[in-house]
Structure formats: structure tokens, C-alpha cells
Amino acid sequence: xxxxxxxxxxxxxxxxxxxxxxxxxxxxxxxxxxxxxxxxxxxxxxxxxxxxxxxxxxxxxxxxxxxxxxxxxxxxxxxxxxxxxxxxxxxxxxxxxxxxxxxxxxxxxxxxxxxxxxxxxxxxxxxxxxxxxxxxxxxxxxxxxxxxxxxxxxxxxxxxxxxxxxxxxxxxxxxxxxxxxxxxxxxxxxxxxxxxxxxxxxx
Length: 203
Known about the structure:
By secondary structure, the protein is of the alpha/beta class. It is 57% helix and 13% strand. α4 crosses α5.
């Protein structure tokens, strides 16, 4: 079973690429770090720990986490973001490693793909065979983020600035797929990548 780390910038197309890999390479198992974080933030214990560590009231009118308030805090102040990551990242890594072990034990997975948005920023300690980056220009990234999430321009800029420049991620990757054009273009690149991967690992 191959282990691949997928990363890139926010709104560059990581989720789209993951779906393509599931479609084009049956036997691919995906671990989505963002989905894991979303699930963790439904835990009262985790949210209470975050609120206590940040010394902030993070509750909303319906007694759930005020995600907008949390987002504003962590992207406005780097120290808050580091505190939050210090709580969440070890939990995400534990879940990721458990998912990989489960995939390996099943014997049915050919590829384990971990979608790790902050792979390089966090120094995510995760041994893998390959780093795969999906990229686009910062201008396209910004426009997609605003359209997708409805963020104001200032917030979109803060979120993008909190990550490494996409050019640096591209330089550190083993493979880069460019998602600055049409969906068909990304699909064709994914097909070529899988063919290259098949030839690379062929005995």
C-alpha cells in the first residue's frame, strides 16, 4: 500500500483531486484532515479545552461552537492559531495513523491518501512515499475562496497569508498538479499521474 500526502493551499482543489483519485484509482482510501477537525470541533471536551486555552467564550446561541468567532480569533492573532493547532494537530495525526493502519490491515487498499492542508506549515510528522501538491495562482485561489465560503476579501487574504506561499509548496512536492484551468485539465493530469505512478511501482 502506497502512502501519499496530498496538500496545497486553501481552495486550490485538494478535495476535487481526492474525488478524482477515488474515481480513477479504485482501492484508494482517503483521510481528510479538515473533516477530522470538523468532527473534533463537535466534541464538547475539545471545544471546552480550546475555549479555556484561548480564554474566550466560543459558544453560540444554540450552545454549539461559534465557528465564525473561532475563525476570526485564530486568523487575526498568530498566537491564538498556534494554540488551536497545538490542541488539534496531535488528535488529527492520531486519527490519521489509525486510519492508515486500518486501511493496511484490510488488505484492500492500494493507496492511502492523507489530505493534509498544513502538511508543511505544521511539520505534520507523517511518513509517506510521496508528496502531491495541487496548485493554482494566488488570484484564482482568492476568488475561489471568496465565492465558495462567502468570506470578505480581508478574511480571505488573512487565511491565505497564514499558509506557506503556494510556490514554496510546489518546490517541496514530489509531484505537482496544476488546477488553474478547467476541470477537464485536472482530470487529464490525474490520469497521467496515476499512469506514472503505476509505472513507477511496477516490479
